[in-house]
Structure formats: C-alpha cells, structure tokens
Amino acid sequence: MFRRVHQRLAGFDSDIVVQDVEPAPPAVTIAILPASRSPIGVESSWVLIMPSARRVRLWSGLVLFAYVTTHLANHSLGLVSLDAMEAGRVYFLALWRNPLLSLLLYGSLVTHVVLAFWALYQRRTLRMPLWEAAQLALGLAIPPLLVTHIVGTRIAWQVYGVEDAYSRVALSLWALAPDLGSRQVLIVGLAWVHAMIGLHSIVKLRAWYPRAAPWLLGLVVLVPVLAILGFVNGGRQAAALARDPAVRAQMLWHGRAPLTPAEAATLVRVREGGFVGYTTLLGAVLVARGVRSVLQRRRGLIRVAYPNGRRVIVPVGLSVLEVSRYARIPHASVCGGRGRCSTCRVRIQTARPQPPPDETESRVLRRLGMPHDVRLACQLRPTSDLGVTPLLPATATAADGRPPGDSHSGREQDVVVVFADLRRFTRLAEHRLPYDVVFFLNRYFEAVGGAIQRSGGVANQYTGDGVMALFGLDVGPEEGCRQALTAAAEMVRSVATLSESLAADLPEPLRIGIGIHTGPAVVGRMGYGAAVYLTAVGDTVHVASRLEALTKDYDCELVVSEMVARRAGVSTEGLPRHELTLRNRAEPLSMLVVRSAVALAPSEPSRAGGEASRTS
Ligand code: HEM
Ligand code: FES
What we know:
This protein has 616 residues and is of the alpha+beta class. It has helices at residues 45-76, 82-96, 99-122, 130-160, 166-176, 178-203, 209-241, 245-253, 261-298, 320-326, 359-368, 398-401, 425-429, 434-454, 476-501, 539-554, 562-568, and strands at 2-6, 17-21, 301-305, 311-315, 346-350, 374-375, 386-390, 411-422, 458-463, 466-471, 512-528, 531-537, 558-561, 577-580, 589-594, 611-612.
C-alpha cells in the first residue's frame, strides 16, 4: 500500500519528491550488513566547508551580540538621564568606532548575512521546528528594517560628519519621527529574540544550564526592557529640551549646517540601494534553490528505510534529519541540526559507502564513544539507499545529548548493572543464513536496547545474544534500581512482541533471562581508538552476570539481589529468596527469584533518558 506525497512550492522544498511507503514487511526492507568499520566514501568540497561556515556564523553572531548588548546597555542609561546616555556613548564609541573593532563589527555583519543566505540555500526542506523557523525568519527580516537606522547614524556620520549623538537620535526617533522610533523598538525586539534563540540552542547543551537558566532568563528580559525604557525616558527629556529652537538646532546638528537636499537625497539613495540589493540577493538565493532542485532530481533518488519498515524516497542531497522532517517522522534534533547536540544520532545499515563523517561529526561521535555504524542524522547526506534507526526518542532533551556518565570518567560509584541474555539462541541460529542471523539479532537488540533506553539506562555492551546495561549513573542507585526493574519488564514485553511478529520463523517463542545487581563499580570510558565506551568494572558487574546465568537454573525471567529490590522500594512479598555464595565474600548474597519480571516492576514508569548504544 503506497501513499504518495509530492510537494512543490515556489523555491521552497521543490527539490524533494517524497514517496512515503506504509509499513512494509521487515523482511523486504533493506539489506542489513554486519556492523562494520565506517564505510569509506566520497567527500565533496562543500561538505568540507560546512562546519567551518557554521562556526564562522556563530562567531560573527557573537560579535553582533556583543555589539547589540553594549548598545542596549548604553540605551538603558537613559533611565538616569540623557547626559548619562551621552557619557556612556563615549566609551561605546571608543570601543566600536576604533578602526579594528569597526572592521570586526561590519565584517561580522556582512559575513553573518552571507552565511545566513548560505544556511537558507543549504536547507533542502523548510519544514522545521518553530524555533528554527523563527530564528531564520527574524534573522532575514533584520537587515531591511535596520538599513534606515544604519544609514541615518553611522553612514551619515562617516560621509557627512553628522554627529549621531543621543540628543539627535533620541529626539528624532521619539519626537520628530515616532513611526521610525516604533520601528526601531521592533528591530531591537526582533534582533534580540533572534540572538537569544541562537544562543539558547548552544547553552542549553551545557550541563550548568539548568541551574543558570533562571538567572539568564532574568538578563534576557531585563536587557531589552531597560534599553527600551531608557530610550523612552531619554526621548522625553530630549523632546522637552528641544522646545527651545536654538537648543533643538544644536541637538540635531551639533554646530554643523543641516544636510543639503542633495546630501539628504544621496542618503535616501544609499538606503534604497541597500534595501534593493538585499532583497535581490535574497531572491537570488531562492532562485538558486529552485535550480538546484531541478538539477538534483536528475542525480537520482535514494531510499531511506526507518524501523517498522517505513521507507522514504528522496533525491540525493538531503540530510537524514531533513528526510525525517520532510516525511514528518518525529526525530530528535535539540540543536536544530547544527551538529552539536548528537540527539539526532542514528544507527545506519548501508550496502554502499556513504560520505564519511566530517571533522565536526567525528568529534561529536568520538566524544560519545559511538561505534562506527552510528552517525549524526543532521550531518549525513546519504548518496545511496540506507536504513536508519534513530537512537534517541524524538522527545530527547539536551541532557540526553551529553555523554552518558560524562562526569563519571574513571570514578568509583554506586551503579546498577543489568545483564540480559536470549535463551537457547544457539538453537535458534542453527541452519540459518548469516544474513538471517544478523537480521534477527538486530531486531532483538532494537527491542531490548529500546526498552533500556526508554527506562533511562545505557546499554553499553552487546555481545552475541547478550546485553549489558548500566542504570543510575546520573540519578543515583535508588532511582537506578527502579529504572532497571522497569527496563526488565519492558524488555520482556518487547521480546514477547518480537516473538509474536516472527512466530512463523521461530521453532519456539523467544525468552530472555535477566540478572540485576547494585553496588560500587569503577565507571569510565574504556577501550582503544574509536572503540571507547562507557562501561563499569568490578565485583558488582560479575555478580549481576552470575545472577543472569542463574535464571536458567531457576527457569525464571529475572534474578535480582535483594539490595536491588530494597533500593527500588518495591514489595518482595511472596517472592522466593535464595542465597548465593560468592568468592571474596564472607556473607552469602541474598537474591530474589522472579518468575515474571513484570511482577517486580515499580508502578511508576521511570523517566526516559540514556541511550542504547552498541559495541561491535
Ligand atoms: C542583530 C544582530 C544579530 C545577532 C546578535 C545574531 C546572532 C546569531 C546567533 C548567535 C546565531 C546562532 C549561530 C549558530 O547557532 O551557529 C545566529 C544564527 C543565524 N543568524 Fe543571526 N544574528 C544577528 C543578525 C542577523 C542578521 C542581520 C541575519 C540576516 C541576514 C541573521 C541571520 C541568521 C541566520 C539565518 C542564522 C542561522 C539560522 C540557521 O541555522 O539556519 N542574523 N545569529
Ligand atoms: S540535531 Fe543536534 S547534532 Fe544533529
């Protein structure tokens, strides 16, 4: 059953023809290759300049931000008096009209605008979350609104020596041309919101952000509000002073003769030229998008397969994130596709080499210790068919983008360790093609990894048919135990669902055994080269593994140490208790044998977080 979506909008999205296919039987989706080394692929030059373009846009944005903030701070002195504004302006000018900073400022403005056009051109679809659209639209709206102000102040000063002191500008904008004054207030609002969206998309990724957020919010509101109030107060003072015609002439021209009609006409031409030039460039970018769309469709279509058999057919050139957005498949993208947050990450299965990660993407993936088959969806622009499995839920937050256990490198701490193992896997794998075994195992890992991730854990090792996961790294052992017990019930449920969907191909229903223990362990990122993963070592890990092995002897789904149940605060009434004698331990370990893992799951589901990663 096919549902075809074909969208054409002048210039926008016209480069995309999406054929969206309803869930198809998994067996016919795409070839799943063994998770191998990163496929070596073609590198195109524009991909190489992308990260540096993004960085330059950020730095130029920060220079503009510094300018706007100091400018607004200067305005807010109007709350004291017009003289205070003028006094503050002396320092402001010493800073920004010094040739070096002037060059930096105007260079940044031009660079930022050019890179804004580049960003607009780069986006293959304009389907995006509201905050991204707002940033783009506000950014693009600023220059045509700002051009009058720049021409009336800096350019009039630079070319004709018109002193753009507060007395002149405040008088003009408040009393003589209040419509321009209102427009100026609007620009301040737009530029500020635009800058704040950009900065927020960066700082929200920092671990300190949640604590600092209330203070930052105060600043974000205070700076423009005080600036506008300063302007209002300064403007009123200027208007009062200007009642005397002599003072008024001095305020406007500072001893200089008023502009001649020819000079004024020149400034108007400059303003109109700026406006026309800008809109022409913007139009050219939109036309270029249209031309590219035609050319790109000729390069052919590729198929992107999602879990559950969903497939999207698009022209080459879109990033995986853009494919998801276009096909309205929910996909996490906390930083807005700028390669910073990693929440868009996907595991890929590809039969042909894809473009390798650039430096930015590699750095992010290395920092997180991701295996080679994991890529950032916002950075990967596939050149051939591939399958993708998003690793984080679409609701992922900035916290989910931070490396798991970031602050736990090489530390001993109380953790919760879970081992899960598929029963009688050898029998299941017998007489099957390697392709089938890999396919089956990937579905199984998806089921258990998803359950672990949804419950807040980190699945850090997939070996054969077994999974090891850590809980409580960031939330402490009590919450970790609750999450682990929730995950155990979820895993059993997910495996049962998988078993039903594959029933025709299975000699017997799938069953898993799970062992959980909690205690101190050394947690850190370990490994070599690209294969560095967050893991835990120590007695707690061995015991959890032993408990999992005991599920075979007791023929049950779950064996947990009593400490796990106690820390989770769940009732253990009626559950059989056994004792396990361990080497290196004088006291035997008390454990609970649980026939059905659902019986011990805490009633409140734990918060999602963490992630299902995979070692290969
Ligand atoms: C008025 C002062 C401005 C400030 C303080 C500012 C600040 C910023 C910041 C901090 C970012 C985020 C950069 C990043 O995440 O990499 C950004 C992005 C952006 N800015 Fe500005 N900006 C200003 C003016 C402008 C102007 C005049 C334009 C329009 C041409 C513009 C268009 C953009 C665009 C399109 C983006 C990126 C949106 C995307 O990623 O698609 N900005 N800006
Ligand atoms: S969306 Fe943030 S890295 Fe891809």
